[in-house]
Every structure is written in C-alpha cells, then in structure tokens.
Design goal:
The complex is a heterodimer of chains A (304) and B (245). With 304 residues, chain A is an alpha/beta fold. In chain A, 41% of the residues lie in helices and 22% in strands. Chain A has helices spanning 2-28, 87-94, 124-128, 138-141, 147-161, 170-183, 199-211, 229-241, 253-259, 277-280, 284-289, 296-303, and strands spanning 36-48, 60-72, 76-80, 103-105, 111-114, 117-118, 131-134, 217-221, 245-250, 262-267, 270-276. In chain A, the strands form two sheets. In chain A, strands 7-8-9-3-10-11 form a six-stranded mixed sheet, with helices on both faces. In chain A, strands 1, 2, 4, 5 and 6 form a five-stranded antiparallel sheet that branches. By secondary structure, chain B is mostly helical. Chain B has two domains: 1-122 and 217-245, no CATH class; 134-212, no CATH class. Chain B is built from nine helices and two strands; from the N terminus they run H-H-H-H-E-E-H-H-H-H-H. Chain B has helices spanning 7-22, 29-46, 50-67, 71-74, 94-120, 123-132, 137-166, 173-204, 222-244; strands at 79-84, 89-93. Chain B is flat and about 65 Å long. The chains are: A alpha/beta (304), B mainly alpha (245).
Chain lengths: 304, 245
C-alpha cells in the first residue's frame, strides 16, 4: 500500500517539477534551438590600467582583438596560448563574468552569444545557468564551510530562480550532491571543510560545484595546473567523459593533445590558429613563433 | 529547542537583548545581573558548539578588556588608590571602577550572545537571515567575504613570512619589520584580488545577492515565536521597571 502511495506521490512531484520548469521557460523565453553553443563575433576587449584608477579619463590596455569563434553543441575545444595571451579574459567574457569595473569592450559591434542568445545585462543570469565555469585556482571557487554547501550552492540558486519546488526538497538536494561527489571520487566528503582538502581534491570538488546544476557548457581555466600526474589523468578522464560542450584553456600542450580534436591558439590577444589539434601541435616552427612548444609525447616520438 | 529557534529568531532575540543590556545605566548592577541571567539562559537555549563557542569568545573578549583597561583611571569621584610618581600621576576613583565593571559586564554578555548565534548557526543561514531583515545586499556580501577571508589572511601572512625568512640571512629587527609591513600591504592587495575572484565564482553559479539555503526555508515556528515573544517581553519589562526603581 505504501509502495503505491509513494509512487503516486513521486508521480505528482515529477509533474509539479515539470510544470515549474515549463512555466519558467514560458516566462523567460526558450533558448534558440541552435547548433552552435557559443558564438563569438568580432570581439575585442581592453582592461582598465591600474595606474589610471580614479582618473576622469582612464587608460586601457588592449588584451583581445577581433576574435571570431563558433563552438558547436557537445564539441570539445582547447584554447592554447602562452601566459598573457588573453585566454582567461576570453573565457570570463564568454561566461559573462566581466563587468564595467574590469574593463570595456573595444568594438560595440562585437558580440558573444550562447545558444543563439546574445549576452546582455538582462539575460545574464539565464545564460549563467547554461555555463559551468571552473576557475584556475580552486580556492577562488570553494568558499563555503563545507563541501556540501559548496556543491549545492549553484543548484539551489538555479532552482530558486526558477521557482522550482525541488529547491525545498532536502532529499533531492542531498541525492544530487552525493551523485556529483561520487562522480569526482569524493564520496563521503560532504561535511569536510574545502579549505583543508588536498589540492587535487579541491580541483575535483570545484568541478563538482558546477556538475550539480548540469550546465550545457563547461569552461575550465587551466584545469591541469598544479596537479600531479595521477590527479591530472583522473581529471582529464572525467572532463573527456562529459557529454557536453567543454572549453578548456591551457598552456599544457600534452593536455591539449590528449583532450580535443579542435584547438584555437591565441597570441598577444589575437587568434592565430583555429583547426586540428593534432596537426598544429606537430608544427614546431609555428609553435615556437607564438611562444609555445610541442607536447612532450610528440617530442619524445621525434627523438626515438 | 534546537529546532524551535531558527537563525532569524536567534538574531532578533540577541539584537534586542544586546540593545536593552547596553541601555542599562552604568552602576545599576541589580539590572545587569538580571540581564546576565537572561543572557545565560538564552545562550543555553541556542545550543552552540561549546568548544568553538569558548574558543571564539575568549579570542574576542580580549579586545574590549584591553580597551577598557584605562577606564578606572578616567572617572570622576572619590579617590580609592593613587600612584604618585614624579612623571606619572594615576588615580583610581570609585566611579571609574563602577564604569569599568559595567563596561566589562556589558561587553562580556554582548559578545557571548553574538558568539552563541554564530557558533550555533551555519554561516549561510546567518547571511540569509540578514537579507531577510532587508539589510542591503552589498553590506551582507562584504560581511560574508570578510568573515570567510579573515582566516585566509593568517595563511597568507604565514606563507609571506616564510618567504621573507627564507631570504633574510642576518636578522635585524628593523629590516625584518620593514619587510613584514610591506607584506601586510601586499596581502591587502592579494585579498582584494581573491575577493574579486570569489565574487565571480559565486556569480557564475547564479548568485544574485541573495543567500539561498538548502532545503526548506527557515520557517519560524509558532512555538519559536511564542518563546521569542516571552523573552523579549520579559527583557522589556525589566527595562521598564528600571525607570521606576
């Protein structure tokens, strides 16, 4: 009898959740069913010079110029470039995380669209739901006093914004947090303080914080930095297994070689290459010209 | 009891009690003792983690104690004790001593109440409650970042000091302290950067200035409202009777 009762309750719950989701979509407008996940058109960006802070006419330093990229749904892409090439700035702009205090767009005609919707102040929260951004330093990402709170943070914000009744359902939240922690091999660490995790665990936990709200696009800034080989391989395996659009920025050439078929190379704020990863990473002259080097795996092959 | 008193209720009770306590005239020890009993009762009702409570309490209480050390010497009244040296002339007066004890009792209880709220609630619940009380988002956000990153200051400072020690081969206090003072400035810049990044990480996960908490919202139960009303009415009654005594 209880079994039937539970089943009816679950069915009602599911209908309620679906209705909330439909209502939300009807109110906010659906994303265009476009094949391109991210579209960057003629995008240029400059940072405010720190020395001119507070000046009436602040000066700016150009960091990105004329960037054009189209990333398709479920595509894996690596953005490669030396330090200061503008990789992180581009990623933060794609995620809509740069504001007027940071800098400004140089060309107003430039735009960034996510699933066909151009990012602007009105739809910024809607777009952020579609994007999971993992910062280079996990200490920037993990700010709560327990792993559970950090992992549930994004999901609760998303559900509350959608006025979804699941935001009030502790069991649902618990189960999602558990699932995400299982996926990153951190099962049972819910009550631990993120500050005291090892660096590799922090990286994994940072990934779990975005897995919880199931974004369509994952953006990972330097995912392999400071990781030991074992943690690096685990992390790589995990992000390769995500059946979603994944954008990775790195100057770890081996990661780029292993991770994606398509790569973009940035140098001094300009896009100098967009194409096959395997092809470009064998071109030693080109790589050296833009301040990069061949992956160790290819270098070793050449030596033997 | 633990379930009855949700974080917003604890905050309301503490703020009212602190306000009433601090409005008692200095030297009115009868009312100060009544408020002390109420405060201790309230603190027990909050069920704080006692170990953390005492640890934090004794850290913070040193500040008002040190600040009020000179109060006994500053009040007017009958001289109880005098130090007459050639350069220093200090007198402890009865009124000075009364003020000193009153300030110590008030700060002791106020800090104990706030520490009890903090140690018995999750931080996100506290900030969520503050937003529910219509405190400006930017104010709550600044408090949150300060609360979260005050602990990271220590780690950053330790790392910086190690970096300085690694490159100082002949220790003189002047050069060492000068370097440490540079380090403090540097840490402020670093924490500013860190705070910016943290804010971006929160914004990326849908943060819009409101602290949402998992599960059911902090429901203020009827029994909790009854208990809160009793405590507040009792505190107000004590305060009113103060005027007639």
């Amino acid at each position: 009898m209880n079994f039937i009762k539970n089943k009816i309750q679950n069915k009602n719950k599911a209908q309620q959740y679906q209705k909330a989701s439909d209502d939300f979509t009807a109110e906010n407008g659906a994303f265009i069913n476009s094949d391109s996940a991210v579209m960057v058109k003629n995008f240029s960006y400059s940072y405010r010079n720190a020395n001119s802070a507070g000046d009436l006419a602040p000066t700016f330093k150009k960091v990105l110029s004329g960037i054009n990229i189209e990333i398709r749904k479920n595509e894996k892409l690596t953005i490669i470039g030396p330090n200061g090439a503008g990789k992180s700035t581009l990623l933060l702009n794609i995620a809509g995380l740069m504001d007027e205090a940071d800098g400004q767009r140089l060309d107003e005609s430039g735009s960034i669209s996510i699933f066909g919707k151009e990012i602007n102040k009105k739809n910024i929260f809607e777009i952020r739901e579609k994007i999971g951004f993992v910062f280079q330093n996990p200490d920037d990402q993990l700010f709560s006093t327990s792993v559970y709170e950090d992992v549930s943070f994004g999901m609760i914000n998303m559900l509350k914004r959608r006025r979804d009744p699941r935001a009030e359902d502790s069991n649902y939240i618990d189960s999602v947090v558990k699932k995400c922690l299982d996926a990153v091999n951190l099962a049972g660490k819910e009550s631990e303080i993120p500050h005291f995790l090892s660096f590799g665990e922090k990286k994994m936990c940072a990934l779990a914080t975005v897995l919880s709200y199931e974004p369509e696009i994952f953006i990972l800034d330097e995912p392999s930095s400071n990781l030991d080989p074992r943690n690096r391989n685990d992390f790589l395996k995990l992000i390769k297994s995500l059946g979603k659009t994944v954008i990775v920025s790195t100057h770890d050439m081996d990661l780029a070689y292993e991770f994606s078929d398509r790569s973009i190379i940035l140098n001094k704020g300009s896009m100098v290459y967009d194409g096959s990863t395997k092809e470009i990473l064998r071109n030693r002259d080109f790589l050296q010209r833009v301040g990069l080097d061949m992956p160790l795996s290819i270098k070793n092959m050449h030596q033997f | 009891m633990k379930d009855i008193l949700s974080t917003p209720l604890k905050l309301i009770i503490s703020v009212v009690l602190i306000f009433m306590l601090n409005s008692v005239e200095n030297g009115n020890f009868l009312f100060l003792s009544i408020f002390s009993i109420i405060s201790v009762f309230v603190i027990i009702c909050f069920f704080p983690g006692w170990k953390v409570f005492f640890k934090r309490f004794f850290k913070i209480i040193t500040v008002p104690v040190l600040l009020s050390l000179f109060v006994p010497f500053s009040g007017k009244g009958n001289t109880l004790y005098a130090i007459n040296w050639k350069i220093i002339n200090l007198t402890i007066t009865d009124m000075g001593l009364v003020n000193f004890y009153s300030i110590i009792i008030k700060s002791f209880l106020s800090i104990a109440l706030i520490t009890a709220v903090i140690t018995s609630s999750r931080e996100r619940e506290i900030f969520y409650s503050l937003r529910r009380f219509r405190l400006p988002g930017i104010f709550v956000m600044t408090m949150f970042l300060m609360y979260r990153y005050i602990f990271l200051f220590r780690d950053e400072l330790n790392t910086g000091r190690k970096a300085i020690n690694a490159r100082i081969f002949k220790k003189t206090y002047f050069s060492y302290n000068r370097k440490v003072s540079y380090l403090v400035g540097n840490i402020f810049l670093r924490t500013f950067d860190r705070a910016e990044n943290i804010y971006k990480a929160m914004a990326a996960r849908g943060f819009d200035g409101n602290f949402n908490i998992p599960g059911n919202e902090l429901v203020i139960k009827k029994s909790g409202i009854f208990l809160m009303s009793c405590i507040i009415l009792f505190v107000i009654a004590v305060r009113i009777s103060d005027f007639f005594v």
